[in-house]
Specification:
Distance between the termini: 81 Å
Number of strands: 13
Strand content: 5-15%
Largest sheet: 6 strands, parallel
Structural class: alpha/beta
CATH class of the largest domain: Alpha Beta
CATH superfamily of the largest domain: NAD(P)-binding Rossmann-like Domain
Bound molecules: uridine-5'-diphosphate-glucuronic acid
CATH architecture of the largest domain: 3-Layer(aba) Sandwich
Number of domains: 2
Shape: elongated
């Protein structure tokens, strides 16, 4: 296997058996395959294409200002592959795994490769679109245990070739679906858009729960998730979804629908709910502290989810900006993602540990459900914080337990602000006596 990247540093790191990204299990796997010679990396596409039978294109497809998909890197890769293929004899299969809008493989990639290689589909060339469904944080596991392999084939021979590759790669039978390239391209967007819709749905239910005394989104989500037509996954309410995929792909699908003349409303609503969800966390802090000016705020968790250092489109990035603008003093902690946030906000304070992050703050907001945050005891919050407002945006703490202390306001998203019943009784007694 030959890896190609235009970034010399990344190529150098991989060849030296160092993972250029934080991803659980990747470092060990990379070290193994580079050591045993199954993987080496180069910066020239030509070398890789000539020395192989199949080229997988997995370049980035970032958002354009319009929300649409920027295909610049896909076009550049297609051109490089085409040029390299001019020098190669025999059949070669080009597989697009990047997330691209329907029509890209057949209408953009194929013509570019054909033009620059001087070869045609069928004779010497094959094309497939093969979306991947890897999740950051569990990507290594997902590679070896796919729930589905989708092959979008430009012709039968291309599909057969890719299916044979996967049969050899996995030593067990895996679920596989062969479709045309446009359908495969849409499957990827539809998959991510549906996941995003589920999250915005459960966040909407969470917001409704907060207005119904004693209702709790966790039980609602658990109950409806048992219905096999709904399913239990992606039902956790929180500060909203982030990362490099769900928000971008949702925008891209909405922009694509508009471009082809369909005025959709659902995807826009899903994005809007997500934006508002993050804002709600900020508003909760503002309401409970009365003013945010000069208040000390601790953010526990910066990564968009545990197991990754990814902070693109993460709720933490927006919250830091809003709190900064409101004149708050911000201290943050994350076991993996601090260096990524430092590049954007070098001026805020970075704590050495989760508990140190709490020292002297007025409000702590839990944004990412890292395991180590679950171990922080109520006493730790109590002894370290100046004012005790805890906003648990991931519901990892028992807010009833935490609110037992008169001075602790613990707010779990998706339930009414916790009131300890025994405290309510004693308050009522006091009121009666005063009367
Ligand atoms: C997502 C998809 O899950 C993958 O299948 C897909 O391959 C990938 O995008 C991609 O397109 O490359 P990923 O971005 O790694 O994977 O993260 P998810 O696990 O989907 O989580 C996304 C966000 O949703 C996170 O911020 C997470 O905290 C949030 N989330 C997830 C919730 O708020 N509630 C949930 O119940 C689940």
């Amino acid at each position: 296997m030959i890896g190609v990247d235009v970034d010399e540093n990344k190529v150098e790191m991989v060849n030296q058996r160092k993972s250029p990204i934080f991803e659980p299990g990747l470092q060990d796997l990379l070290a193994k395959v580079v050591r045993d010679g199954s993987l080496r990396c180069v910066t020239q596409t030509e070398k890789a294409v000539i020395g192989s039978d199949i080229t997988f294109v997995s370049v980035g497809t970032p958002s354009l200002r319009s929300g649409g998909t920027d295909l610049r890197f896909v076009r550049a890769a297609a051109k490089d592959i085409g040029r390299a293929l001019r020098e190669k004899s025999g059949y070669h299969l080009v597989v697009i795994t990047s997330t691209v809008t329907p029509g890209t493989t057949e209408s953009i990639v194929q013509p570019i490769v054909e033009e620059h290689s001087g070869k045609r589909l069928c004779e010497h060339l094959g094309f497939c679109m093969n979306p991947e469904f890897l999740r950051e944080g569990t990507a290594v596991h997902d590679v070896f245990h796919p729930h589905l392999v989708v092959i979008g084939e430009c012709d039968r021979r291309s599909g057969d070739q890719l299916e044979r590759f996967y049969q050899a790669f996995f030593d067990k039978k895996i679920p596989l679906m062969r479709v045309n390239p446009k359908t495969a391209e849409l499957i990827k967007y539809a998959n991510n858009a549906f996941l995003a819709t589920k999250i915005s749905f459960v966040n909407t239910i969470a917001n409704i729960c907060e207005r119904i005394p004693d209702a709790d989104v966790i039980s609602v989500a658990k109950a409806i998730g048992i219905d096999p037509r709904i399913g239990p996954h992606f039902m956790n309410a929180g500060a909203g979804f982030g990362g490099s995929c769900l928000p971008k792909d949702l925008r891209a699908l909405a922009a694509f629908a508009k471009r082809i003349g369909y005025r959709e409303t659902l995807l826009k609503a899903v994005s809007e709910v997500n934006e508002n969800q993050c804002r709600r966390v900020y508003e909760l802090a503002r309401r409970n502290l009365r003013t945010l000016k000069d208040k000390r705020i601790a953010l526990l968790g910066l990564a968009f989810k545990p197991g990754t250092d990814e902070t693109r489109d993460a709720p933490s990035i927006k919250l830091i900006r809003w709190f900064k603008n409101a004149g708050s003093k911000i201290r943050v902690y994350d076991p993996a993602a601090m260096k990524n946030v430092m590049r954007i906000y070098p001026e805020i304070s970075y704590a050495a540990s989760a508990t140190k992050c709490l020292d002297g703050v007025d409000c702590a907001i839990l944004l990412t459900e890292w395991e180590e945050f679950r171990k922080i005891k109520p006493e730790e919050f109590l002894s370290r914080m100046r004012t005790h407002v805890l906003i648990d945006a991931r519901r990892i703490y028992d807010s009833v337990q935490y609110s037992k202390n008169m001075h602790f306001v613990a707010i779990g998203l998706g339930r009414t602000k916790t009131r300890d019943k025994s405290r309510e009784c004693s308050r009522r007694k006091i009121t009666t006596r005063v009367k």
